[in-house]
Amino acid sequence: MKSLQLEDDLKSIYSDYIERYFPNSKSPTITPDDFEILSTIRYDPSLSKHPPTTYHEISPSNVFLLPEHVARLRYTFQFFHYLYGTPFDSEITEDFLLKQIKESLEQMGKPLDKPYKIRGLFKLGGTARLEIHETTNRENLLSGLQEISHQDGSTTSSMDEAEQKWDVYVNTRSSLISPFTSFKTTKRDVYNEARKILPGLRPGNEEVSLFNSQGQLMEGSITNVAIKRKRDGKWVTPLLSSGCLCGVMRHFLLRRNYIEEDIVLIKDVSIGDEMILFNGVMGVVRGRVVG
């Protein structure tokens, strides 16, 4: 799983940050109590051939990207336990995560005919809690990838007009690369700060793109991103070494060759450029740089 490997260049980028905030495992500035590992997961009844009518009938296919979520959780636990020098004798498996989701849906009495965003929060010690929120119903979670060819040779997105493109804004200043940008946790200061530039003209359809101190595009505040490479028209997403999140949807799209990894310089991102935005809850949507 190339995109989930701890690369040497990623370790190098982290070195200054880790020396500053994690001087040693016994007295780090940021402690394990300061954050939780986070995974936002989509439950969707339409993802199985026969939608579940009872909690017992919920299948792995109803949990979008379940194997990718488990793989990232394991990898994230491994990284932070290595960083803090702490042991971890529990194991996160697909069966464990599916069981937690079933039990949480049942305990909260959630109707099974709706999709949900499940917010999984995990402490380094192994305790877990799940929050469940309703989310948008989407007939095709990959619709942002699809294009329609026209007689004049042009192409447009096949997304329904009701979905429309998201407005993407470029952050006004660079963002600091850290383990908390590459790994999904509740320590989201850099993203919360970046989102302050959003004008709020289209709530729910606005995103801000972040870039690092090397002038490289990283990601969005709640999404991974890809942009069309001008020389060949391929969708390219920033390398992990940019400091971007090792997202589950990013990994899914890379493995299926929908996108490629490459360095994307923020100076080459212009107003009017199309992007695709993706995460493990909404799938893939289209965006356009507007500011």
From TrEMBL:
Molecular function GO labels: catalytic activity
* InterPro entries, alphabetized: Aminotrans_IV (IPR001544), Aminotransferase-like (IPR036038), BCAT-like_C (IPR043132), BCAT-like_N (IPR043131), Class-IV_PLP-Dep_Aminotrnsfr (IPR050571)
Annotated GO biological process:
carboxylic acid biosynthetic process
Q: Which Pfam families match?
A: Aminotran_4
Query: Which spans of this chain does the record mark as coiled coil?
Result: none
Judging by the UniProt lineage, the source's domain of life is: Eukaryota
Q: Which SUPFAM superfamilies match?
A: D-aminoacid aminotransferase-like PLP-dependent enzymes (SSF56752)
In the record, the note on similarity to other proteins reads: Belongs to the class-IV pyridoxal-phosphate-dependent aminotransferase family.
Q: What is this protein called?
A: Aminodeoxychorismate lyase
> Which organism encodes this protein?
Candida parapsilosis (strain CDC 317 / ATCC MYA-4646) (Yeast)
